[in-house]
Amino acid sequence: MRVLIAMMKHETNTFSPIVADWKRFQNWGAYIGEDALKAYEGTGMPFGAYVELARAAGAEIVTPVAAEAMPSGPVTEDAYNHMAEPILDAVREGVDVALLDLHGAMVAEHTDDGEGTLLEKIRAIDPDLPIAVTLDLHCNLTAKIVENCTVLIGYKTYPHVDMYEVGKQIGQVLFDAMEGKVNPVMSWGNAPLLSQTLCQGTDDEPMATLIRMCREAEKEPGILAATAFGGFALADMRDAGNSVIIVTDGDQAKADEVRDRILAKAWELKEDFIYKHTPLEDQVAKAKTMTDGPILLLDHADNCGSGATQDVMTVIEEVLKQGLEDVAVAAVWDPAAVQEMQKAGVGNKITLKLGGRTDMPSIGEPGEPLTVTGTVKALTNGEWIVRGPMYTGVKVFMGPTALLDTGNMEIVIVSNHHEPWDTGVFTSVGIQPEYKRYLILKSRIHYRAGFAPIGKATLTLDGKGVTTSDNNLLRYEKVRRPVYPLDLLNEE
């Protein structure tokens, strides 16, 4: 048996000014052929789970590509083809099964449905190929995705600490189907709900309720997989938003019934999926009264893990203005500042115009640097391996990295965008985050994977950026209408 295993992932923020070209994928880690197998075998990724299943089956493994980029604007057609064509070539050469590690919110220059387009092309080559797909919890599920695969599942955790488990679950379902042990059928649907990522943490309501319903459903006889997707509201494409898919063993009516039950609950909880804002200065003032650290301060509107520029200085400026002490920041993207610090050298004082390198036309905000003075405390190559529960075993490439110490604040400055979901973002430059009073994290929910165990409290700080949770700042043109909260919808 010849098994194709591939990874092709990007969460596209169509409001982001950052281009997702092939170089951006290479900066994260884009691997072709045997290099893909070497990079991801043994990791906590769906790809790693697929490899384990294939090896247990004694299969020949074909790994045409494993590529992912930090979320950003639409994927260029060239970058898309760099990933898709090796997969399609492998299918043309002949494989018996395909196990795909995808995202579900990829928008490219030439298609708003990157994953659906890939699967449609695979089906055109081999209409009967058994295909299993894992998708991110922030997938914007489409008919084209569902209709062109055999079985499908999404993560049940945010932060995504179950990637390996769901990969193994759905991969096993597909192998069982090929052996005639099960006959999988799928039922899917979406709600007219454009829920916000900041309200999709699976330890919190309302998402916790939907996940609990999925887990309970999977305990019922004949239900092979149940997934509730939060969707990704920052991808302005037709099917953005909440959705549900159920996989059963030959029972379409049961699949439909469970799907409808979970979708109805999502709609019932719709108001809880919308973030409530608090003035930035008030939250920082509140943080100043809190003494038992680390206090986690989330600069969520500038989260590169959802496509932000990671160089907006609004929150950092307010924290400095109010005089908070013993602060560490992860991270500011500013390759030019890193180069200046490299020239200055470790131990030397430097004044920088930090951040603000990127204009954000979609929200009408120019890049605004902040002048800071401090000491160059560390310089690294930005490479380290994740040891925490999310992306376990995967090597991180932050690019040339520097640490600036202003006295009250230590700022990690990187050359490649990277969301701080693991403490390695600090420890790799010599900071022990558990001993800091405040940690400013340019993150929304993924920070919990590495920092929830050490954080004594968490505050969301509403700064500026293209991962804003303020719908009034965003102009939607493609999403299906009516949709909540952009439109007032009847309760019926």
Brief write-up:
This protein has 492 residues and is an alpha/beta fold.
Give a verbal description of the structure.
This protein is α/β, with parallel strands linked by helices and 492 residues long. Helices cover 28% and strands 22% of the residues. The chain is built from 14 helices and 20 strands. The strands form 4 sheets. An 8-stranded mixed beta sheet has the order 13-14-17-18-12-19-11-20. α3 (46-56) packs parallel to α7 (163-178), α4 runs parallel beside α5 (114-125) and α8 (207-218) packs antiparallel against α9. The chain is globular, with a radius of gyration of 22 Å.
Side by side, the strands of the main sheet go 13-14-17-18-12-19-11-20
Strand content: 15-25%
**Number of helix segments?**
14
Low-confidence stretches are: none
Overall geometry: globular
Rounded average pLDDT: 97
Number of strands: 20
User: How many whole angstroms does the radius of gyration measure?
Assistant: 22 Å
Largest sheet: 8 strands, mixed
Quote the distance from N terminus to C terminus: 51 Å
Counting helices, strands and paired strands, the structural category is: alpha/beta
Helix content: 25-40%
List the main descriptive attributes of the protein structure presented here.
globular, alpha/beta, 492 residues, 8-stranded mixed β-sheet, 20 strands, 14 helices
